[in-house]
Task: inverse folding
């Protein structure tokens, strides 16, 4: 009985180490990573394409909206844009579109606006609630005339994270979602630099790392292959984060 | 030696699938907790908001993977969350059909009488876990703990986990209302985990005290030797 007890205890303690060895096997790793597709399939099957993320009242906002990731891109190009209060900033919209666009802050403000008080959920576990305003990404893509071959929208950012350019991508379901906006205001003021000035993506049904900050370029593509390391985003490429971040 | 057939196939299969899932989910969950070891009540909560509990950093012998890796902890956690949820669903349907719930887990009024509970507590302290007249039956503390785990803790840990998904918040906004916001759901998720971990420790201790070989064999083959 003592032997059995010992093996039971040893077996329990060896479990985490065993899991690490399993996760190193390519096949096991592939199966484990299938969880992302299963969750995406289930979540998409259970939700309406246009189901809205919860929205809140002004008094339910976080007192302080904490930043994460890059607090300031700090590059010469960004510093120059910032010094000119982003008057010279242009957001390029190109790729698989009929009419490539180049939009300044005034152009974004002239489009129909959507304001929404939503919750931002970091992959780490914390949440913050804030009010965002900007045009719908769907309206911008319609103005540019998305081609039939387009499957994903890629967002290129002004910042380098760990020396590599930050970028993200979403599919067309989320790109045309009514709450997916190009936000230039947070809590009724221009975006602070730490939160992504002059403009960031809000894609409210996914986790925070999908909400690309410091936007410079929006590109419609047919495939994510050949962009970055091909997995659709900085974190996806470099540290195995899920591309679909609905949970 | 007399053997009785104690655990049916559906119970045995689910037991082992669930055991693996629980160990992996707790290990990977503690790894995820290390990314932001603060718990809040309400809709929001981040570093500058008051936390009701600051958790310790869980050591590498408890977490999956052993060295901090949020991405891989999440991969383990999210894959096995499906194993846990659909495993429980399948087991519940099978146990309604094969009458395992009705026959073995049904708590009767006499089970819960003060006298019966007191007698069962004394029997536990004397390390007697089986009623000599009905040795096949679960004792009342066993029934109570299984009922709490199967019908309260597991469904609650699954639903609070679903409530952490921003996509599912759009699909099922009532879940957030039920738990009082995402950060409350996260706190309840953690408390359920603690309850399940506590159950697991007590469960393993009692398996050892009741006889590892007999108990483990009965959960593999179904056949249990009468004491």
Result:
């Amino acid at each position: 009985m003592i032997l059995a007890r010992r093996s039971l205890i040893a077996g329990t303690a060896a479990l985490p180490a065993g899991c690490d060895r399993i996760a190193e096997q390519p096949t096991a790793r592939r199966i484990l990573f299938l969880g992302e597709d299963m969750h995406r399939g289930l979540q998409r099957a259970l939700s309406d394409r246009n189901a809205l993320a919860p929205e809140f009242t002004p008094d339910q906002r976080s007192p302080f909206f904490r930043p994460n990731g890059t607090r300031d891109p700090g590059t010469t190009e960004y510093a120059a844009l910032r010094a000119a209060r982003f008057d010279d900033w242009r957001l390029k919209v190109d790729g698989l579109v009929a009419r490539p666009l180049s939009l300044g802050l005034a152009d974004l403000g002239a489009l129909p606006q959507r304001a929404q008080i939503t919750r931002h959920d970091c992959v780490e576990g914390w949440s913050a609630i804030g009010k965002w305003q900007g045009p719908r990404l769907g309206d911008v893509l319609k103005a540019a005339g998305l081609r039939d071959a387009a499957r994903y929208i890629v967002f290129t950012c002004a910042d380098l994270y760990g020396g590599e350019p930050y970028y993200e991508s979403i599919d067309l379901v989320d790109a045309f979602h009514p709450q997916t906006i190009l936000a230039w205001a947070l809590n009724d003021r221009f975006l602070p630099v730490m939160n992504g000035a002059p403009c960031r993506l809000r894609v409210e049904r996914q986790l925070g790392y999908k909400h690309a900050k410091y936007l410079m370029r929006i590109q419609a593509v047919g495939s994510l292959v050949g962009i970055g390391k091909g997995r659709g985003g900085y974190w996806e490429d470099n540290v195995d984060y899920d591309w679909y971040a609905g949970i | 030696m007399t053997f009785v057939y104690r655990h049916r196939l559906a119970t045995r299969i689910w037991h082992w699938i669930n055991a693996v899932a629980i160990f992996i989910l707790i290990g990977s969950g503690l790894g995820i907790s290390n990314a932001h070891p603060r718990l809040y009540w309400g809709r929001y909560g981040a570093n500058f908001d008051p936390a009701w509990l600051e958790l310790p950093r869980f050591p590498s012998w408890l977490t999956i993977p052993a060295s901090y890796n949020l991405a891989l902890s999440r991969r383990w956690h999210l894959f096995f969350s499906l194993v846990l949820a659909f495993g429980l669903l399948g087991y519940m349907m099978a146990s309604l059909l094969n009458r395992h719930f009705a026959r073995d887990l049904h708590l009767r009024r006499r089970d819960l009488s003060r006298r019966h509970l007191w007698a069962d507590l004394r029997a536990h302290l004397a390390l007697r876990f089986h009623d000599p007249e009905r040795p096949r039956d679960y004792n009342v503390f066993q029934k109570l703990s299984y009922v709490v785990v199967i019908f309260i803790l597991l469904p609650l840990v699954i639903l609070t986990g679903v409530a952490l998904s921003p996509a599912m918040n759009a699909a099922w906004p009532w879940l957030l209302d039920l738990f009082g916001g995402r950060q409350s759901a996260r706190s309840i998720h953690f408390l359920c985990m603690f309850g399940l971990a506590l159950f697991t420790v007590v469960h393993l201790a009692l398996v050892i005290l009741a006889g590892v070989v007999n108990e483990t064999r009965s959960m593999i083959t179904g056949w249990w030797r009468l004491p």
Residues 3-20+77-225 of chain B form one domain. The beta strands of chain B are 3-5, 38-39, 53-54, 223-225.
